[in-house]
Amino acid sequence: MMFIARMIAREMRSSWRRLLFFFVCIAVGVGAIVALRSVIQSVRQTFAGEARALITADAIITSNRRLDPELLSLIERRLAEAGAAELESVEIATMVRASDASAGLTRMVELRAVEPGFPYYGRMALTGGQAFSHDLLRDFGVLVRPELLAQLRLQVGEGLLIGTKRFVIRGVIEAEPGRRLGAFSLGPRVLVSMEDLHATGLLAFGSRASYQRLLKVPDAALDGLITTLRADLANAFARVRSYKATEDDIGEDFARAEDYLSLVGLVILILGGIGVSSVTRVFVQQKIRSIAVLKCVGARSSQLLAIYLAQVITLGLAGSGLGVALAAGAIAAIPAWLAAAATPGVAIEYGLTAPAVLQGLGIGLLVSVLFALVPLLDVRHVKPSRLLREEASAPRRDPVQWITIGAVAAALVALTVWQAGSWRIGLVVTVGFAVTALVLHLAGLLLIRLIRPLAWSRWFALRHAVLQLSRPGSQVRIVLLAVGLGSFFIIAVRSLQENLIAEFAVDLSPEAPDMFMLDIQPDQVEAVRALVTARQDPGAPPPRLLPVLRARVVGVQGRDVQLENYEDVRGRGSLAREYTITYRTALEANERLVEGAFWSDAGPTQPGAEAGMTPATEVSVEESIRDRFGIAVGDVMRFDVLGRVIEARVTSVRHVEWSDSRAGGFMFVFRPGVLDRAPHASIAFFRAPSEAAARGRLQADLVAVAPNVSLIDGREILQAIEVVVDNVTLAVTVVGSLVVLSGLLILVGAVAMTKFRRIYEAAIFKTLGATRRLIMAVLLLEYGLLGSLAGLIGSLGAVGLTWGIARFALEIPFRPLPLLTAAGVVVTGALVAAVGIAASWDVLQRKPLATLRAE
Amino acid sequence: MRAPVDRRPEVVILGDSLTAGLGLDTPQGFPALLQQRIDERGLDFTVVNAGVSGDTSAGGLRRLEWALEGNPRVLVVALGGNDALRGLPTDELERNLAAIIDRGTREGLEVILAGMEAPPNNGPEYTARFRRVYRDLAKAHDVVLIPFLLDGVAGEATLNQADGIHPNAEGARLVAETVWHALEPVLTVASETR
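Predict the joint structure of the above. Result:
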């Protein structure tokens, strides 16, 4: 034991320079992981806070009817068991007016009644910096939105009639947490207290209301409570949702971002491991002579293994420690430059988190050992005879080594799954990793075989570059593997990042529509258009109006089909449901023609209507209609449009990108000509004036022009989404840059490690009369070739991996990025060549005699 | 467009999602149930379902012409639910419904006005005004009034779908019963005078 301890000390003292890179690899890897994890956890906490603010609670139970008393007591019992608190809230739409009867104006509002303690999360912001407290609502106080004041010509302090009661306006709501994203808004928000709502008599039999119970639950109990409550309320028309809910889109995006961030942490880990592995391999090769000496004097393989393993552990720990320090420094630097980029209103607190530090240290150690283990096992094969005979035999693999490789692989898969936070992503990454590694290995073998004829080239540099690559025990395999996998991961992370951000890209440009109108009748279209255009900010794009109709499919292909034949799985809706349809002469930006041809003009307006034989018009169906109901181009479909049957021939199939529904998404689009004569309303979307008062006035004046038209103001919703999207994009970009940075460092190291071999060869070449220039040409060709090949295989692997993850794990559409991929190949090749030359610089400079003597 | 074979006199039901049968299979909706009743009684009428989900009285007025292009004899006006849900002005509702009834009577149709109620959460003033619109119109235009289309159905959890607005199959049967009560005498008279 003493022997081992003494040897560790001696070895470390003598070879610390050579192990410096091992140390750096681990430090960078761990530093990246810790910094990343800390950032992830900080961002996640912020997201979690935001997600909570969106529902103003940890969880929410909603129902459109009052729950039975038994159910309520059951819920209360469950909450007590979980240590949770609850608040009741009710939302209804109601008509209000100024309480002095002379003003006859009434207006529909969305009233929310709350109990003291609301909101659990998020902040109720009132204008003029007024602080929100429940006391403002007590005794028939009410808080309102500014547009209501404008519409009813009221001021703070005046009275508002809600139901049968007079309320006093005590403040103006600037921003409100928990405004349901994407929900239809029937009018501006009005906030009252729960007791006062009961006094208004608005909650009577037949009232339409959303009954909500906002829950504040200790974190540990949340998931369990949600599961229990869902089971309890399964038959009660109530929905239970936690802030983590992936049910709505935002929730899904959160989950995706988390998965992505975890995956990235893992990538850095593996990059570090590659570095460690190549360092250890080279280290063992260099130590062969001293190992042989030690064996001569009676050291056992197990003792030697213990010595080197202990060194690896020491280095791993020390490197991890340095990594944590690096991470602390990096994180301290973040807020400075992030402050400018971050969205105002959302403060992300960045800091080292304890779990991240512990995980970093643990992973650093684990990766050091796992990746060093296989090369270290070579120690056992070193024979004392090596001292006398120099032989460059390729290391043979024995069963112990294979078993170790298997164990290490299994441990890595487990790590992958753990770090990615999902079996699916973990497996996709592992499979991608294994396939790429295998391809790289085979490519290496193939490359050597392919270029062997070039060894007879007349050009010295090429001849020797080829000889270098093809001789036994060359660096081809290591570099190909390290660089190939490195570029594989960097390109994969980059393109995943592009895919993710593209998925997030809601159109939030200043021209994007933020107000919508429903139910515009044909005779109102021009007046509405004129009103909107007159009120829009200068430079805003003109409003868009789409005609919409409702139709049912009543038959296909002339057979008077009973629709059950075409009925799909119940619940997903049958073909017979009411569809919203439209007509136009061109495809929208979010549509793509899949089959057939889209008309470019209006069809005949007077078809053989009464003949009833020829289809009156043409229709283009969405892909899913074709796929689910087996409807093909050429079929004749019969539609019931407002009580009349219209036949249309299917002449094309379209694909609609539903996630981008700015131009609307329609299952059926008709050729103009026939449907225009059917009565129908239009919907409009446009950019409303930015000033709140102007928006209020627009709404008020719209009532005069077209009283039936409903207006939906999406501004606040868009703003809320914008904050979330900005944060996610920021986090994803920061994290992606970190990967590229650490990946580059580790790749540089892996290439540089091959330099120890080069010193000796360069010395021999020089002795034999080679110029520095010639040696450089050899190096350039050798590394350039290797780098390009590794880059190529890595890029192809990355495309596969991105596709796999996008398709199976994140469930987002895959966008190939040819430019990024091509750049990956070129940059990898150039980088490897440059690093190869740079790392060998002192080799070129060194006098051959010094090198040969040292050996 | 309409198959020329079918030239039976029509009962056109101009309505919204309640008529369209949102969330129900077509045969479960109250118009289909009425057709069943008519056929059972051996009456010679076709029920035309001119229900459009989400439609208001304003929308109904604008598509009246389209709905009446066939061979209508009876017009059932079942609109107003969406006006109430969206809190649209009751004056507008009254004007639109009056125009629809006028047009129907001018064409010589038997008009039946199906009454609707605004939910209590809209506030007592609005709900009272809303209810009055149907009473007044029926009286002024001398048409048959169904006091409340969703009588005995609205607000009953067991008779409505999960959204609490639209009747389920059982609820639709009750609605058909309510409408039939007003429709049957009208059809009987109409068949005799033909």
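The first strand of chain A starts at residue 59 and ends at 63.
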